[in-house]
User: What shape does this take?
Amino acid sequence: MKKRWLPKYVSEFSDRHGKPRWRYRRKGFAPYCFKNPPGTEGFRQELRACEEGIAAPAIEAGADRIVPGTFDDLLSRYYRSPDFLNPGDRTRVVYRGVLERWRERTRNGRRYGGVPIKDLQPRHVEAMLTEVLPHKTAANMLRKRLSALMNFAVRIGMTTTNPVTVTRPFKVGGGGFHTWNEDEIAAYEARHLVGSKARLALDLMLYTGQRGGEARVMGPGNVRHRRLTVTQEKTGATVSLPILAPLAASILATPSGGMVFLLSEHGKPFSRKGFGNKVRQWCDEAGLPKCSAHGLRKAAARRFAEAGCSNQEIKSWTGHTTDTEVARYTAAASQEMLSDAAAEKLMANLAQRLANRDAKSLIKEA
Assistant: This one.
């Protein structure tokens, strides 16, 4: 019997001894019987665990038909592990899409999901990656996800080796998204003046080093103690940044909504896809077909590198966690500017060494 005062999905029943019991029943999730009565702290903790899918996990369709030891079995475990659940929501959607498309592919009439894990060999991985060509980037993404999946399998004892690690990724040219140079930034600024939404979009990304996903939802609520505090959508990292003068001027000059700085023509915050399309339009209006929203994040990192900032300083802005990630973003730093800076340091060091040598000579003569 369900009581009105009970939380949603919770119902009361009597056990075989006639004692009252409570359970959590929700379609698509495993049932759960509470150990504590409603109104207690223990009950609230159990309910929270049910709502978060811990005590009452989602039931995977066809789970009872999964053959133990196959990739179907491995994936059902992987999707409930910290390896998969720790990244942000958007990242999990991308990763799961890659794995699910691979799982449903067939070779010689056999689904990859139904293949025993221990049968996988490097030559099989090579063949699977070749099937994705000519899309080298997609093949490399699949290789990464399969490698992570097999590392998890090794850790939980479903296999002893990871055959993906001995394969090699495809070499992809182009360096990813184009990094804006100073001439392109100037051309955009000349076309979209301070006070326009187009200019504010550029300034929000260029002077914070954040992704378009963060820029589209930034607003007065992110301003604390004259700083911008941003939690990144992709990684969950939080950065606190000083509001630079050009960005402050752009924000003050641009009409905005109460919740976010940038509103669409409909008076609402931009969707992720809508914002990317709008930036694409603004770049085209400025005659910049190669430029994109993500390229501005790389341009911000480039500027920091050219200013002589350390990797640690750059990471404090971009939210990256490793030097390797920063290196990909700062690869477009001006070679001439950096070589000039290196030459100045070299000559200063040589001059100091000569001065020290001359000083020692004078001391000996004296």
